[in-house]
Write a structure and sequence with these properties.
single chain; 284 residues; alpha+beta
Length: 284
């Protein structure tokens, strides 16, 4: 997934760490847009035809569509053609691994037209629509691994995949304590969250930037323009029931701006803090 993963297991057999690593590597093989044989690549290249995929991929697609609806379109899983057009083609981990798209791939895509069939184990993307699991895939991976660790006998678990974090069960000491980085001063946290169970995700333009045709680009695209968001937001952190939900909702400020986003996130019943480019912070 071109990122670091951290796993903490409380209680249980030490071999659970190996179980967690194996599961994360499997999800990377299934979901990476840089792997030619992944479920995601095969779906993107299928020209609208149904594709047999793993159960985890069916869940990924279902959660992606649900997140698109819940976020009012602020999270758009079909932005991949726009992301590639902006120059984000190769893996940061391996520049030789590149995204493959069909000639008719376009944005906007049709998230509502994505279908899954549990009885046959098949999924289908509308022709011209291409999927990028992106951050939601990392958050869902954290959710799945935490669930597997607890089912395997752990008393508690923390899994962070590229900063998308999920905790559940018994913490090493008291509650799970999660520091929220200040985008303007990384030497000190903006806040510290005490969690019993749930997910946390932060989206920040500074996390992934590059130059393309002489322009400075970042990975947080506007769902209305398909271009890097110009909202005056330096970072957005959301704490929700799951890491996948937190990741999807952390995109809302880049669509609505910091003030309107705080109102929307408060109405969604999640804890959030949005830090503006001017250093101001708005919290639910």
């Amino acid at each position: 997934m071109a990122c670091r993963a951290d796993v903490v297991v409380v209680g249980g057999d030490h071999r659970l760490l190996g179980v967690a690593e194996a599961r994360l590597r499997r999800l990377d093989r299934l979901w990476s847009r840089f792997r030619p044989g992944s479920d995601v690549t095969r779906l993107n290249l299928a020209a609208g035809a149904p594709v047999p995929v793993a159960p985890e991929t069916l869940l990924l697609l279902e959660r992606s569509v649900a997140a698109w609806r819940a976020s009012g379109g602020a999270f758009d899983p079909t932005l991949l053609p726009a992301l590639v057009a902006a120059g984000d083609v190769a893996s940061r981990d391996d520049p030789a691994a590149r995204t493959a798209l069909p000639p008719d791939a376009r944005w906007p895509g049709d998230p509502g037209g994505i279908t899954t069939a549990r009885d046959t184990g098949e999924a289908r993307l509308p022709r011209g629509t291409a999927l990028d699991p992106g951050g939601l895939g990392k958050g869902l991976a954290a959710d799945l691994v935490v669930g597997e660790l607890l089912a395997g006998g752990a008393r508690g678990a923390l899994v962070s995949v590229g900063g998308d974090l999920r905790v559940a069960g018994t913490a090493p000491r008291g509650a799970w304590s999660v520091a929220v980085e200040d985008p303007h001063d990384r030497a000190r946290p903006r806040a510290v969250l005490a969690l019993a169970d749930g997910g946390v995700a932060t989206s920040a333009p500074a996390a992934r930037r590059w130059r393309h045709h002489g322009d400075d680009r970042h990975h947080l695209l506007s769902p209305t323009t398909g271009r890097p968001s110009t909202a005056p937001v330096a970072s957005a952190t959301v704490a929700a029931a799951t890491a996948a939900e937190a990741e999807a909702l952390a995109k809302v400020p880049y669509a609505l701006g910091p003030v309107a986003a705080a109102v929307a996130l408060d109405a969604a019943g999640v804890a959030a803090v949005v830090v503006g480019e001017d250093g101001s912070a708005t919290a639910t």
